[in-house]
Amino acid sequence: MKVRIAASLVMAAGVSLALSASRAGDLKSGNTDRIGGSFTVKAITGGQKGKSLCYV
Q1: Which of 20, 27, 31, 43 could connect to 48 by a Cys-Cys bridge, CB 3.0–4.6 Å?
Q2: pTM reported for the whole predicted model
Q3: Which residues of the chain carry a pLDDT beneath 50?
């Protein structure tokens, strides 16, 4: 009886792993949107400390 329960749990885990692996191909990592233009930041460390920097 314990073997049957253990086998059922292993089977359920295998099915759920297979389903999650098949859906993982649809996921994308990171930001897919682009920023709207340049932006200004103030440097707080390093050689540019205290200056406003413009990034594009």
Answers
A1: 43
A2: 0.39
A3: none
